[in-house]
Amino acid sequence: MPTLVSFIIVSAALLGIGIYGLSVKRNAIRILFAVELIVNAANLNFVAFTRYMNPPQVSGQVIVFYSIAAAAMEAAVGLALILVAFRLNSSIDVRKLNKLKG
Amino acid sequence: MVGIALEIPPDVTFVILTTITLLAAILALQAKELIYGAVALAISFIGIAGFFVFLDAPYLAMLQIAVYVGAVVVLILFTIMLVRREEVEPAERPEGGEGAVGLWIAGLLAVSIAGVAALAGPNLPQSIQPADLPISQLGPVLAGDYPVPLIILALLLSAALLGALVLAKVDR
C-alpha cells in the first residue's frame, strides 16, 4: 500500500498542472478545466488524509461531498457566464474580455 | 482493499491510476481540439474516482463519476458546441516567455508542496489502518453532524441553477 506522501505528491502534481493551465491558457473553457483539476487535487488530498487517520475517519469524505456539489454549481454558473461572454464579445479569449478596463 | 486489487498489487494499481490521471490532465489542457480536451478531462476525473475506490470511499467514487463525468463534462461539451463558431482557438499558443513563466510557477509550487510533504514524511502516518467505513456510516455524519451545511448546500444548488438559467437565457 502506498504511503500518504505518494498521494500528496500526486495531488501536488495535479495542482501544478491546474495552476499552469490557469496562468497560461487563454480560452475560458480551458481555464474552467484547470479550475476543476485544482478542485479535484484538493478532494484527493481530503480523502487520502481522512483515510490515513488513526482510526480512519469519515468526516473528510463529507467535506469532499460538499466540495463536489459546490464544484458542480461553479461549473454550471461558469459555463453560463462563458456563454454570455461569447454572446457579447463573440469570443471566449479571456485576453479580449477587457471592456471593464475603461 | 478487496475487490479491485484482488490480483494486482496495490502499488501497481496506484502507479497505473497516477499515470492515467496525470496524463489525461495534461492532455485536457494541451489537446488541440477543445472537444478532445473535454474527453481527456472526463478520463482524468475517472482516474480520481479510481483513487477514491482505492482509498475505500466508494460512495464518493460513484458521486464523482455521476456529477463530474455525468454532469459537468456533459455540460462542458454542450457549451463547446454552442461556442464552436470559432473553429480554431484564437492564439491558443501563448507567447514563449509567458508559457515558460507559467510552467515555472506551477512547477515550483508543485515541487515545493511535494518537497514539504516528503520532508514531513516520517511524521505522517506510514501504514494504513484496516478500513471499517461502510457507506451507511456516511449518512448519519452527513445529516446528523452537519445538517446546516446540507440545507445551505440545497439552497445554493437551487440558486446556482436559477442563476445559470437567467444568465444563459436569450432575450427575444
Description:
- The complex is a heterodimer of chains A (102) and B (172).
- By secondary structure, chain A is an all-alpha fold.
- Chain A has helices at 4-24, 28-52, 59-89.
- Chain A has one domain: Helix Hairpins (Orthogonal Bundle).
- Chain A has three helices and no strands.
- In chain A, helix 1 (4-24) runs antiparallel to helix 2 (28-52) and helix 2 (28-52) runs antiparallel to helix 3.
- The longest helix of chain A has 31 residues, at 59-89.
- Chain B is mainly α.
- Chain B has a domain at 1-86: NADH-ubiquinone/plastoquinone oxidoreductase chain 6, subunit NuoJ (Four Helix Bundle (Hemerythrin (Met), subunit A), Up-down Bundle).
- In chain B, helix 1 (10-30) runs antiparallel to helix 2 and helix 2 runs antiparallel to helix 3.
- The model of chain B has no long low-confidence stretch (mean pLDDT 84).
- The chains are: A mainly alpha (102), B mainly alpha (172).
- At the A-B interface, helix 1, helix 2 and helix 3 of A face helix 1, helix 2, helix 3, helix 4 and helix 5 of B.
List its salient traits.
heterodimer; A: 102 residues; mainly alpha; Helix Hairpins; 3 helices; elongated; B: 172 residues; Four Helix Bundle (Hemerythrin (Met), subunit A); 6 helices; 0% strand; globular
What is the count of β-strands of chain B? 0
Regions of chain B with pLDDT < 50 over 5+ consecutive residues?
A: none
Mean pLDDT reading of chain B:
84
The computed structural class of chain B is mainly alpha
User: In what range is the share of β-strand residues of chain B?
Assistant: under 5%
Instruction: Please bin the fraction of helical residues of chain A.
Output: over 70%
Beginning-to-end CA distance, first to last residue of chain A: 56 Å
CATH hierarchy, class of chain A: Mainly Alpha
What is the highest CATH level, the class of the domain at 1-86 in chain B? Mainly Alpha
Number of helices of chain A: 3
The fraction of residues in strands of chain A falls at under 5%
In one word, what is the shape of chain A?
elongated
Q: Rounded to an integer, what's the Rg of chain A over CA atoms? A: 17 Å
CATH fourth-tier homologous superfamily of the domain at 1-86 in chain B: NADH-ubiquinone/plastoquinone oxidoreductase chain 6, subunit NuoJ
Which stretches of chain A are low in confidence, meaning pLDDT under 50 for 5 or more residues running?
none
